[in-house]
Amino acid sequence: MMEFQFPSFNPESIAMLFVLFFISCYYLWRKLEQHNVSERKQAPVLPGAWPIIGHLHLMHNAKLPHHALGAMADKYGPIFRLQLGSRSALVVSSWEMAKESMCVNDAAAASRPGVSGTKHFSYDFAAFGLAPYSPYWREIRKVTHMELLSNQRVDQFKNTMFGEIKTSLTELHKTWAAQKDESGQVQVEMKRWFGDVILNMLLKIIIGKRCVGPNAEGGEKQAKDFQLAIRDSFHLMGQGLLRDYIPLIGRLGFNGQVKVMENIATRFDMVLREWLEEHKRKRASSSSGKKNEDFMDALLSLYDGKRIEGYYDGDTIIKATTLNMIAGGTESTTVTLTWAMSLLLNNPHVLEKAQQELDTVVGRDRRLKDSDIPNLVYLHCIIKETMRLYPAGPLLGPREFYKDCIVDGYFVPKGTQLIPNIWKIQTDPRVWPDPFEFKPERFLTTHKNVDLKGNNFELIPFGTGRRGCPGISFGLQMVHFALAGFLHSFDVRKPTKEPIDMSENFGMANEKVVPLNVLVTSRLPSYLYALN
After folding, report:
1. Rounded Cα–Cα distance for residues 238 and 397 (Å)
2. Calpha distance 142→460 (Å, rounded)
3. N or C: which end of the chain has fewer CB within 10 A?
4. For residue range 347-369, what is the model confidence (pLDDT) as tens digits?
5. Residue 332 is assigned to a structural domain of this protein
6. Cα 386 to chain centroid, rounded
7. Which CATH number do you get for residue 518?
């Protein structure tokens, strides 16, 4: 008689059954989760998606994505979804939706997507501005705030900033005196001039020396290479890579742009490594005991020879953080100053009023001081209006929801990218009468209490929330000092009667397409330009 027998199980078989059981449970859970997500109410998806690429063709065909997305918002509303290849994105285009996504849901929308540009230009996400939300991000952001970006530290750097402005204006006056034509004018390309001023200002504070211009303290070639690499990286990150949205492209070996990114990252590292080694040598040979003279010294004191557990070694942290601060500060500030000057030249009555204010507050018998800046009320309005019309990052940096949340009643699953259309928000006619007109006076009257620091969602060129720019005070100080110093020291006019071309070139920084060449004339007594 045959008896029924239970199969015999050895320990390996039991373990395999448990593995299969848990795998089955996982796939069942994922299927249920996907079903639940599809059943929950999500923001309306834009029509016109194609198979595989989704709405990427709409973005690829748009010369200025923030304008294209603005037109979509006019048609479909202030919140909608795009399918960008394999990635889903939530586009918000009103101050109410900005508040919902970046304030009410601040904790959920505090991460960054892991795309090629942010990976290669951040030492594999070690630069905190491009790092995902994590304990590492929180620590480096905190350290950077304490050592460089707090209001107290910005106040301490005022003399250094103003010294750099003064030196740059003196150099420009010498150029004017040597090269002026019969009418007493010399031509200056303003993006280059502002870019060098801001770069020197940041380098003096971060690595301890100015590197560009006649009064450079060495390292000009490295600094200019670094500056060009920043611009190249901003251009590439603004374009984006198809392989980040359609992974198959990467698997098939289409990596041409990746190699370009790797080359730019190598250029960054060569300069940063040289600066870091120079700082280490100086610290090793120093007998004074003063080791925290600049920002890189402060980082060396904290991280030299150390590692943040689970993340990066000390040298990588120092180089990545230095890169973050210089790249984040130079390009956006330079772009803002160039747009401000372009707007002033196209609106000569505003330019005249700004210089009248400078003559009233400062006069022409002395140079501008940092204590004058708070009294230049109209200049502050000019800068606000410039940032309203031409925000340096019209779509901000890429953000990502790292956990599920609800925005305006719509379910947003984790992994969704957030695209806040800052340009659209800041030209909303419900909030801004004559939204495309350059009217600094609006900040003296109807919008007097609107600031730039992320407290008023109608005007958020620096973003807001956890991922808002941590260097707002630092950046505004640079913009105010540079613009006020230049307008006080020089008269400026267009080289022709034609209006300044205001065409935009989209990227991570919203650059002006046509270089801004202007004619400048000294407006102060020559002795005031001397360096004391």
Report:
1. 9
2. 22
3. N
4. 999 999 999 999 999 999 999 99
5. yes
6. 16
7. 1.10.630.10
Number of Cα atoms under 13 Å in the Cβ half of residue 289: 0
Helices (H) and strands (E) in the chain, counts: 18, 11
Alpha-carbon span 32 to 35, nearest angstrom: 5
pLDDT at 9 over 50: no
CB within 8 Å of 401: residues ≥ 6 apart: 90, 105, 108, 109, 111, 412, 413, 414, 415, 416, 417, 418
Rg of the chain over Cα atoms, rounded to whole angstroms, equals: 26
As a residue count, the chain comes to 532
> Alpha carbon 49 to chain centroid distance?
30
For range 390-416, the mean pLDDT: 95
Annotate 24-72 with DSSP letters as a single string.
HHHHHHHHHHHHHHHHS--PPBPS-PBTTTBTHHHHHT-SSHHHHHHHH
pLDDT by residue (tens digit) across 197-210? 999 999 999 999 99
Structural domains in the chain (count): 1
pTM of the model: 0.91
pLDDT of 307-334, one tens digit each? 887 788 999 999 999 999 999 999 999 9
Checking if the pLDDT of 20 tops 50, the result is no
Residues 6+ apart with CB under 8 A from 251: none
Q: Is 353 left (phi over 0), alpha (psi -120 to 50) or beta?
A: alpha
